[in-house]
């Protein structure tokens, strides 16, 4: 029987063997996912075909991005089904159509800003849009900043610096916004999500998280909820400690936990377990798609075990179907 995760109104059934790819194809790491207005799933991955498009049943539709993307990291889709593809390998954000036509590029490909300079970009990680269409970019591994751009890619302002105080970041890994314009930032190695107004003023933070990595705002404009993908331990000293993830947490707009999915017994490839949740999206039915970087994370979680072939093939994409009965 497929595993069931969560409790109460937030119960999800793991869909086994969801992605049905052409023979010989592999997703490798799935850095991020997005769902368009027709419930097509965009799988931004680090295999030979960077953007794989599936239907709700996991059937392959098409791919694009071959030769364009260096290292998939973040993916956001807007109300017009434009894709914002964040590539931390060549330090760019590309706005694309759903058939792969590039409409806008922010950043200079393969030309990072100096490490921790605060200038965009040095291994940028993700994007989100304001209600006016302004573009927020989390940046990232070689910076500790959030940048705000006009819809056509002109820099408006930036905020953030390395550290642990409010408004400071230790791996600014993901970013989301809501209909009121609040900005939510996954401050991964500070184990928190920080909340800002649209101008970068610190408002509050959500704690009791473990290495928040993926961040998705959902649930509608009036009562938004958030699904947060949390990584498991990253150090040898606590590698085998239970109840630290990897897992998903569902929280309300104040950061109060509504539900938690998995993570009690650590990572794994068995049904109901996660490897390294890195990107999350929901479809119109409330089903959750989870992209995982299980290949990159394998030696961190399982330093003495051989990685099963299924991890590189399709296991880094999971579908969790909401239980409705």
Automatic annotation (TrEMBL):
Keyword tags: Glycoprotein, Repeat, Signal
UniProt NHL repeat ranges: 128-152, 160-199
UniProt entry tagged with the keyword Amino-acid biosynthesis: no
Organism superkingdom: Bacteria
InterPro entries from the UniProt entry: 6-blade_b-propeller_TolB-like, NHL_repeat
Designated name of the protein: NHL repeat-containing protein
Organism: Bradyrhizobium frederickii
Lineage: Bacteria, Pseudomonadati, Pseudomonadota, Alphaproteobacteria, Hyphomicrobiales
